[in-house]
Amino acid sequence: MDDSEESLEPFANADLFYHGVIAKLFPKNNMGIVRTESGREIAFAYNLVIVLGGTQDPNDLREGQKVGYDLGWTSSGLRVTKIKIYPETSPNDPSPDLQG
Questions:
Q1: In the chain, what are the domain boundaries?
Q2: 20 burial type by CB count under 10 A (0-12 exposed, 13-18 middle, 19+ buried)
Q3: Each residue's pLDDT expressed in tens, for the chain with a length of 100 residues
Q4: Which of 30, 39, 92, 99 fits a disulfide with 46 by CB distance 3.0 to 4.6 angstroms?
């Protein structure tokens, strides 16, 4: 690997979002909780969060799903204001280069 490849590789998944996991979802209450990389849990309301990525519907979120998020202050304190859904990659999916 030459120097030009090394300098590009770390930025392949870089974005401006914090990274965490959907810890809990409460569909009946239209609420959810994101667990940060440090272990802190921060709530979000379905009607107040902007969802980016493959879907724009908070009802499509799943517990355990890795997401990017952004924070903001509301009258109720610190809340998740944006959630970015990353495409899931499966190690079992054959890449198009390997199919013959």
A1: 14-85
A2: buried
A3: 444 444 333 334 568 899 999 999 999 999 999 999 999 999 999 999 999 987 778 888 999 999 999 999 988 899 999 999 988 765 555 544 444 4
A4: 30
Q: Which residues pair with 33 in a beta bridge?
A: 24, 43
SS3 29: helix
98 phi, psi to nearest 5 deg: -90, -10
pTM of the model: 0.72
Number of neighbouring beta carbons within 10 Å of residue 28:
6
Quick one: 14-85 is in which CATH superfamily?
A: Nucleic acid-binding proteins (2.40.50.140)
CA distance 54 to 92: 21
Which two structure tokens, joined as six digits, stand for 45?
């309301």
Q: Dig out the tokens for 73 from the structure.
A: 């202050």
Are 37 and 19 within 8 A, CB to CB?
A: yes
